Amino acid sequence: MPLTSRWIYAFIVSCCCALLGYALYTQYFDGLHPCPLCITQRAFFVLTALVALTALIVHPQQKGRYLSAGLMVLFTSLGSAVAYRQVWLQGLPADQAPACGPSLEYMFANLPFGEAFSTLMIGDGNCAEIVWTLFGLSMPNWSLFAFIGLGLCAIASALPMVKR
Q: Cα dist. 43→19, 27, 39, 51, 54 in Å?
């Protein structure tokens, strides 16, 4: 069976859903509460999945494949940046990690959007805490790898050699 852009879109949607499903599982069944940067990464996984799902349904021609790939690469790049920021925060010595900040709900309810967004991107002590690892890597490390892999898949979906 030849590799087609539709298979790649389905793969991206499946991966994003699996990653989001596991994140929700760890939140509601393992009791791991997501920090603001974790929630932001989830949002970029959702946006990537929505673009891939739309492309899967619409089945675009070459220009549409370029647009879809461009949007997915944009979202995976932004998600990678957020994940990298959290990995960096987790690598700081405990005395250099930023203090814990207000909750995400509080920030968006009580601060102007620009200030809430910039506070969100700075991260806080909750973002620097490592509460889960697999093979010695924290969840943001795995999230970073996933964003990079999904971005590469998005690029592959637009290659002319991949059938529509």
A: 12, 15, 6, 12, 16
User: Both tokens of residue 37?
Assistant: 């940067």
Give the CB-side neighbour count of residue 93, counting CA atoms within 13 A: 2
Residue 131 forms part of a structural domain: yes
pTM over 0.70: yes
Query: How far apart, in whole angstroms, are the C-alpha atoms of residue 125 and residue 30?
Result: 20
Q: Give me the domain span that covers residue 24.
A: 5-157
Tell me whether residue 81 is in a domain: yes
Mind listing the pLDDT tens digit for each residue in 33-50?
888 888 889 999 999 999
Using the structure block, give the residue that is written with the tokens 């599982």: 25
Tokens found for residue 28: 């509601």
Q: Report the C-alpha gap between 25 and 111 in whole angstroms.
A: 30
Residues β-bridged to residue 132:
none
Q: For 57-80, what is each residue's pLDDT tens digit?
A: 998 888 989 999 999 999 999 999
How far apart (Å, rounded) are the C-alpha atoms in residues 129 and 87? 10
- Residue 34 in any domain: the answer is yes
